[in-house]
From TrEMBL:
Keywords on record: Heme, Iron, Metal-binding, Signal
SUPFAM superfamilies: Cytochrome c
Protein name: C-type cytochrome
InterPro entries referenced in this protein's UniProt entry, alphabetically: Cyt_c-like_dom, Cyt_c-like_dom_sf
Record domain Cytochrome c: where: 34-124
Organism: Flavobacterium agri
Range of residues in the leader sequence: 1-20
Stored Pfam families: Cytochrom_C
GO molecular function terms attached to this record: electron transfer activity; heme binding; metal ion binding
Length: 125
């Protein structure tokens, strides 16, 4: 009789311990992330934007500070630009070097493009 209840108890403990262990997916889903944080991740990750753009200095492409400032002044739309639906307004002479990246940005969701926009604007506040 004692052995049976010990087994029952062990079985109960074991089933509790294995249930509801959070998976990596649900962890990522629950993690709160602001658009700027997502934008930064994309900018330095799959967007590969960092290789030509620096927040404050011109490297191959204009700085994010400059892009943000000009887009605000001219009331431009960064999301439309990244979808290749709006013309360049920052440095049109260098446009071909930027154009190749639309292969990446056109595969991004609106949420991701808006996050990139929010990240760019975060430097020109
Ligand atoms: C191979 C280098 C390169 C990469 C990588 C790159 N850019 Fe650019 N980008 C440029 C150059 C050069 C310009 C200036 C030409 C222009 O204004 O279109 C530019 C301009 C821009 C502009 C201003 C466009 C305008 O109105 O003139 C935005 C916004 C921009 N880039 C965003 C991004 C984002 C977001 C990414 C990543 C998804 C990215 N760039 C990746 C080179 C690059």
């Amino acid at each position: 009789m004692k052995t049976i209840s010990t087994f029952l108890l062990l079985g109960l403990l074991f089933s509790c311990a294995t249930k509801e262990a959070p998976t990596e997916d649900s962890f990522e889903y629950e993690e709160k992330q602001t658009p700027v944080e997502l934008g930064e991740k994309l900018f330095n990750g799959k967007g590969n934007c960092y290789s030509c753009h620096n927040p404050e200095q011109k490297i191959i492409g204009p700085s994010l500070l400059e892009i943000g400032k000009i887009y605000k002044d001219k009331n431009g739309n960064i999301v439309e630009f990244l979808k290749e639906k709006a013309d360049p307004i920052v440095d049109p002479a260098q446009y071909p070097a930027m154009k190749v990246n639309f292969a990446i940005t056109k595969r991004m969701s609106d949420e991701e493009l808006k996050a990139l926009e929010a990240y760019i604007y975060s430097f020109s506040k």
